[in-house]
Design brief:
disordered N terminus; 46 strands; globular; 5-stranded mixed β-sheet; mainly beta; 9 helices; 22-stranded antiparallel barrel
Length: 914
Amino acid sequence: MKKIVLFLFLINSAFLFAQKEVSGVVKDKSGAPLPGVNVVEKGTTNGVSTDYEGGFTIKVKEGAVLIFTYVGYASVEKPASGSKIEVTLDENGGQILSDVVVVGSRSTKRTVVDSAVPIDVINVKEVTTQSGKLEINELLQYVAPSFNANKQSGSDGADHVDPASLRGMGPDQTLVLINGKRRHQSSLINLFGTRGRGNTGTDLNAIPAASIKRIEILRDGAAAQYGSDAIAGVINIVTNDNVKEFTGAITYGAFNTHAKGDFPEGTANTKGYRLDQNGNGNSFGKDQDFDGGSVKVSANYGVPIGTKGGYVNVTGEFLNKNKTLRPGFDFRKGFGEAEIQGVNLFVNLAVPISDKTQFYAFGGSNFRNTDAYAFTRNDGERVVEEIYPGGYTPRITSKINDNSIAAGIRTETSGGWKWDFSNTLGKNKFHYDIKGTLNASLEENSPTEFDAGGHSLLQNTTNLDVSKNYGSILEGLNIAFGTEFRVEQFEIFAGEIGSYATYDTNGNPITDPTTQSPPTVPNPDYDPTDPDSSPTIARPGGSQGFPGYSPANQVDKSRNNFSLYSDAELDISKAFMVSGAVRFENYSDFGSTINGKLASRLKITDKINLRGSVSTGFRAPSLAQIYYNLRFTNFSSAGATEVLLSSNNSPVTKAFGIGSLNEEKAINASLGFTANFGDFTATVDGYLINVKDRIVLTGYFDATQYNLGVDAAQFFVNGVDTKTKGVDIVLGWKKTINENRFGATLVGNINDMKIDKVKNGNLDEQTFFGERDKAFLLASAPPNKFGLNLNYGRKWFDAGLALTRFSEVKLLDYQMTDSSLTDEDFRTDPSETPAQLFANRKKAATDTYGAKIVTDLTLGFKLCKSTKLSIGANNLLNIYPDQQDDWVEAGGYWDAVQMGFSGAYYYARLGFNF
């Protein structure tokens, strides 16, 4: 035994003595240190990352070669010939990435610098350590020029998943990829006063920020390359692959409750009051100076597998965020951001099978408990005094599960052909519990909590990609082709009976509300002198705040899609490149489509590139848009309306003259340039996006004559044609003077959307898609947004100041459609025509949110080699959208536009890097 121990000791000692320790510093061309640079011993998985001062120490074998890589810089290989190494990385300017990117091109040698289309590359590790943003949507809102997302209130499921848009298009018109593979969408469809009304989207917040290496945003139509949804562009999330490095962070922050505004005396929540312990809104606790307190803990670590570059990288993330409560009108006591408890896990791995073959897999699981305010039920028809004296605010709580797994094999043949075969499975599930509520038809016998059912979306994608580069053809030709088969399944599952049923006066559920009238009770507001006033009112059934899904709403529908694509890129000369793509897709539920794309890049000089593209595109209607259905109460300042949202394939929908859904069709064009002059870089890209047969949610049709037991009906339709034009701007400057590091970046987007045509057929346009519906579509993003980001660093200290300007936004409130108001209520002159009266109504209903500038500040202090403390504030000056009157969609004094409505957020973060 002693001999074995001695033998092992000698072997280990020999190995140790065969190694040597190398240290050094990595800087950019200006002399500024670069933290987070990957330093890897070539041919092994042995590696480290540079610290906050660009320093590193690594043990390597004699004769080793070190590889230095960093997002935005050209890679460098350097022999470890001495004990000290100094490395300078060459940056190709600002946010431009010199390494190969995934989106926009299938050429393995194509970079952002010489791409034919605009691509933003965001170093997430750098962004997350220099801001107080907690989730991916928040990060992108302030660093990507045309990306917009906001927290919602009073918008049901949208309070739990932030709708996000690119270039002002719908949330479902941007394709999301993870490591180049299609990501499944959320099962949620946005219905109420929110961005993306009538759209589904992808839940970016289900992906932990700590797992992400970089985010690539292709701001160009790409349906011909990647398929459905890529009308506005593509967001590709590249996950971490580093090993032998632990990074982590603990962040705490809270919001300033003192909202600015001249609120009426006695208005609920004006000074940071909170709801009672049940969240019911009929009593308040003590005053609070801060709310929305949040704790986020994240950790990432990678382990090598074998000796040929294999790895497994694991990320864990925990988020606990409390509600915010902001001023609401007397009909809206609960208004603010939702509460979230979330756990995220993500794994990324690769295992070499041979020198040129690799097995890879990645995936994650996200679980979130959320708790959001619904509309307050005050004294009157929505209140049972025995349970909630003075009124109550129901809460919509949800359990969101988002899971995904992708696996595949990459290989390269001896002839240079690259093959990639993979399968990706993802599922999103929403399950609703409604709390602090009641079923009014049960009166005082009603429970106050219901399981309301929910919905889910499963997507499985199998694809094969093949490509090859021919370096001997002119200056290089890359060809690629492939195929994809996708299966999707959408489900709605029912809740407990009390969440959706109406009960008679004996407490028995009314199974068919169209043949039996719901129970009535005396109307406390009855006015005998008013002919329109009724002595009794009906007690509606279902859980107030969010009605449960009934067996009649249940859905289990699926479809499949098959596609073939081919693309090619040819460098005709070192200065001139052209590319083209064509894609065929066939859907089992609506048929086939073919789309194409042409793009080109011309180097005018060594420092200036001209680029442009033209393409056709499409987006298939989501299964949720085709099959979603629900009976609900739309509750607003104008009152309550019982509504049936009818599925597109139902007889009710056909009876109203609504046709079957088909794909949206798009034409995209872009033209821009890039410039690089030493310390200064610039990219400017103009774009035009025409969308035909865009899918929208109609207004409310009168349904009383159809004996459906509701007041109104609503539908999904291919309802409008839109034209969007705009400009994206990114300007960057970076300079080191002595030991002082300076940086400035200006990002901006100017966006203008017009509705060319409302395709209402013989139906009334104002009901089909009226002025108010148009305003919500056109306000999907501010007409312009500009952000100026200033950075300074010296030794152990750094600081960042960001100024973001959101332009004016206009919406139309409920006065536009309130049936209790007639045109005569808006008459200012006896001679005014009906058209003038309509214009007067529209003017009165216009809510104008003036332009606002939001200031973010962060200060960083390096406490030691591996630990950094950051403190700062988002919205430092506590800016809110302009205060509106009591017709606002969400029931607070603001809509969810521009920067949101929770005010200043103060935070501290402790970051670790070992």
